[in-house]
Description:
The protein is mainly alpha-helical.
Amino acid sequence: MFDNLSDKLQRVFKNLRGEGKLTPANMDEALREIRVALLEADVHFKVVKQFIEDVKVKAMGEEVLTALSPAQQVVKIVRDERINRGCALPMSRPP
């Protein structure tokens, strides 16, 4: 189950690598894929909903870090949210 979740998260981040800039459209697509992956991994829907909302607020509210690609920025935000929640959601090494 965790391998499958990790693979799906890696695919989301890989898809973002090709983007030059983090936009609301590509962020919404990435968050949709993350939401589905978490739900398929049997994470409680209320936890998923709050997690996605928090990541979206941070991703769209943060000043774009020029040293990071969109994929790296999303990985950082998702990682920070996992740590803030004491969450053990698996995630392989960042892209």
